[in-house]
Hints:
This protein is an all-alpha fold. It contains 17 helices and no strands. Helix 7 (103-123) runs parallel beside helix 9 and helix 12 runs antiparallel to helix 13 (211-218). The radius of gyration is 27 Å and the shape is elongated.
Amino acid sequence: MISLYIDHNELEKGTVFLQWLIDAMAYETNCSFDFLSQEIKHFLEKLEKNQKENMLIYLLNRVEKRDEIMDIIVQSFNNMEYVDVFRNEMNLWTKEIEYNIYPALKQRAVNFVSLFLKLAYEKGLDDQILDVTIQDHQNLDCIKHWQIKRFMDKEQYSKARELLEESLKICQEYGSRKRYQLLYKELLVNQKDTETLKGFLRELLKSNRNIETYLELKNLYSKEEFREVRFEIFSEFSYDDFLLKLYVEEHHWKSLLKNLSMRSDLNFLNMYEKQIP
């Protein structure tokens, strides 16, 4: 199919047809790119350098449509000859993150960059290309998240930990901070650093007031050890509504009833009375 354009030396028309074909197949999830991969590779080899660069730009901006598009990129553009194209496109994408005033469009750009980096790494794009592509944007949380995951995947835990701890100190945006927290927990588990994990979960519990975090912390102790820790946690939340949830979790019904009886707000009683056996 595509080879006919090579045979007739109509590469520009062939490029238009190839782009149309990729766009059409991108929406047909039951249609595989596999049968075309060698034809596409052969066609791209016939293009002049500027034509190939334009084709790369086209492909880069469509990686979210089908994972197989990244396969084409890695197959035909996986060398430093094209690094400037990767870098320039990343510059454009990150401008959307840094300067777009519309949250939805900004988040879309974040999702796109995150997906690009994930696919590029998983499909085997050269590490040097990736390093140059992100080097001017390592202040962005989505770039840091990916970099941390790459460090962890390569078992470079000290680098991952350094970047994580630095990021947790400065990041205030809820979604990004939560992602750092999840990565930090994963890292501490991988490193078997239980003591640091205990301290981290205690601090996290103070900010997120989440029963799941409480249970994660509880599971790090023996039943006997946790008695004292539980008392400390209850004391920390003695004037907080979260204490009621802790009482329910631990089946401290007498303490729950006593606390509820001291409240003037009947909404709390209505909320918890059905949970009391």
